[in-house]
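Record passed on here:
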Amino acid sequence: MTRKRARIGDVIRLTGLSRATIDRVLNARPGVKSSTKSKVEAALKELGYAPDVLTSRVAAQPAGVEVFVPVGPNPFFKVLRDGLEAAIDLFKYTNLTIRFREFDPYDSDTLSGQLRRVKSDIAAVIAVGVEAPEVEAALEALQRRGIKVLTFVSDTPRAKRTAYIGQDNLAAGRTAGRLMLGALGDRTGTLAVMLSNFQFRHFLDRQAGFGQICAALRPGQAVTTTPPFGQDPTRSATIMKDLAQAHPDLAGIYIAGGSQPGGLATFAQSFDPAPVIIGHEVTPFSREALHSGLFRFVISHDTVDMGRKAIRAVLADELPAFIPSPINIHVAENLP
């Protein structure tokens, strides 16, 4: 037998507290006494309360969710997980049990194996998409088993997934191109796109968007894409050495995604003037790069916003194929 979902009015009647006070507890806002917070949390637990913005289906009975996030030297992976955990904490009053599963972004076989081992009692899988046939097949198999599949940050458009949650990465790349050309002004020279691998769709979409806007706004602009620099600083140093030899007129670098190339600051200083560099995601490295002047702009996800949308998508009955997350532009003065 299912239980009717509790509403905030039920919490008010049980605790005798105001709607404003309960709202502060639900949204983790400051200014609430610990005794008041404990009283509200006890009532929420007793009632099986889920916030009204969510559907009642999952709140009525426990459900499991598995979140697949990459691990490795790319500092964004930690930023991503921290943002997701902060978002998940806002949904602690639902009956969702959320577990993280880590995977090597360069090992699609292991990731596909992990996806195939997801148990049938799991309601949904949230995964950073990897464009590899074995991963796409595993995601489609989950869908056939009745498990909701949500990709986030990077999509797998060839696979049948429920929805993609994240930036419009073509638009992010076009944004980077417009910022680049604006920063260059009348300066001419080759522009380089760098990324760590070709298995993430969001990197490729950003690369494409960057090229599109450069061609549209400055016809004839030379844009080159380097080989993927992976996670090896020695490899990225070699790639940048080859880039300097092939394009001594280098005017700008767009790092479309991945770990930061090793030796980037030294490389940039070898040019006079130094190339305009645009990166992605707010990490300790990119913060320092903005403050030092190495980066002109950083484009980033709001990982907490994306996490909220992902969890709401788990609980929703109907979803659009694309749930957008904002494209944030940072300079040194507006870092969060």
